[in-house]
């Protein structure tokens, strides 16, 4: 439910899904802060979207992250929503070491999983504190349909997005230890996009299409505008208690989330654990 969002930080908002969400939230009158590495893209957003705020930093510069986040929270003490959205994708063959370097694999893991985990650690106490005082807060973390249904083309991407899915479950379980008021007001939401037409796979799209047998057989990408429209439709849907849906899935992403909830989710329920 978008009405609970007043001030939102989008980490990784200079391109693709992140940028499109930033533009839509800004158009809804929300206070929007965007981070990214590309100074020129951040400047373009500031020029085109009156009143938007930006911060330039690299989420894989782990030593500097605490300083950057402290500065953000000092500037926006009422920040109620954080969206961790950054990600990169490589396509390679684990049986062919020449198809990728060890350093490239490390960068992908750091960007897609290590950084979101560190960012969650830095933002969760702030959001929990506001929630304890009655403010509705939300931590959004973007995974992928490939975190539920991995495909051979993207070894590290699928693995890291599965890790992000696990991260959101753990965040909810640990939230269940917090005071009741905080639990009631804070939501942990996993964003689960399908294959969407962005620049994420621009370096290997043609190759992966060929590996699938050509355009007639390859998985089609959902147009970005269509995805954003459906995302906001799902965002307005709520659970019976008024909280946001635990997974904001669209298309193939929702299929993956529903399948997980219908199988492993039931095991957690039998264990009495939050999911």
Explain what the structure shows:
There is one protein chain. This protein is an alpha/beta fold. It has one domain: 3-Layer(aba) Sandwich (Rossmann fold), CATH 3.40.50. The protein contains ten helices and seven strands. It has a seven-stranded parallel β-sheet, with helices on both faces. α3 packs parallel to α4 and α4 runs parallel beside α5. It starts with 6 loop residues before the first strand and ends with a helix. Belongs to the short-chain dehydrogenases/reductases (SDR) family. InterPro entries: NAD(P)-bd_dom_sf (IPR036291), Sc_DH/Rdtase_CS (IPR020904), SDR_fam (IPR002347). One of its GO terms (molecular function) is oxidoreductase activity.
Concise summary:
It holds the Pfam family adh_short. The chain has about 280 residues and is of the alpha/beta class.
End-to-end Cα distance, whole Å, is 19 Å
Uncertain stretches: none
Looking at the structure, the CATH topology is Rossmann fold
Number of domains: 1
The CATH architecture classification is 3-Layer(aba) Sandwich
Which sequence of SSEs, written as H and E, runs from N to C? EHEHEHEHEHHEHHEHH
Report the CATH C-level class.
Alpha Beta
Rg for CA atoms: 18 Å
- Strands side by side in the biggest sheet: 3-2-1-4-5-6-7
The tally of helices reads: 10
The major pleated sheet works out as: 7 strands, parallel
Number of strands: 7
Kindly state the percentage of residues in helix.
40-55%
Average pLDDT metric: 94
Q: Structural class, from secondary structure content? A: alpha/beta
The dominant shape is: globular
Strand content: 5-15%
């Amino acid at each position: 439910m978008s009405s609970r969002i007043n001030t939102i930080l989008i980490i990784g908002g200079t391109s693709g899904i992140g940028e499109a969400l930033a533009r839509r939230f800004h158009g809804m009158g929300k206070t929007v802060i965007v981070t990214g590495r590309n100074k020129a893209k951040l400047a373009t957003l500031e020029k085109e979207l009156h009143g938007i705020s930006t911060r330039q930093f690299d989420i894989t510069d782990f030593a500097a992250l605490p300083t950057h986040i402290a500065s953000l929270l000092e500037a926006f003490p009422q920040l109620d929503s954080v969206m961790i959205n950054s990600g990169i994708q490589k396509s390679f063959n684990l049986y062919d070491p020449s198809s990728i370097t060890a350093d490239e694999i490390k960068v992908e893991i750091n960007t897609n999983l290590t950084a979101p985990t560190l960012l969650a650690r830095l933002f969760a106490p702030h959001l929990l504190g506001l929630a304890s005082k009655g403010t509705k807060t939300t931590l959004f973390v973007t995974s992928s349909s490939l975190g539920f249904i991995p495909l051979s083309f993207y070894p590290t991407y699928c693995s890291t997005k599965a890790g992000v899915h696990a991260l959101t479950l753990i965040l909810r379980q640990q939230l269940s230890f917090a005071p009741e008021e905080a639990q009631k007001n804070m939501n942990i939401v996993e964003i689960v996009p399908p294959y969407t037409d962005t620049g994420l796979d621009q370096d290997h799209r043609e190759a992966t299409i060929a590996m699938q047998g050509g355009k007639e057989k390859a998985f089609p990408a959902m147009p970005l505008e269509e995805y954003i429209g459906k995302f906001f439709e799902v965002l307005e849907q709520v659970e019976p208690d008024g909280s946001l849906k635990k997974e904001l899935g669209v298309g193939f992403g929702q299929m993956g989330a529903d399948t997980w909830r219908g199988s492993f989710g039931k095991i957690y329920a039998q264990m009495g654990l939050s999911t």
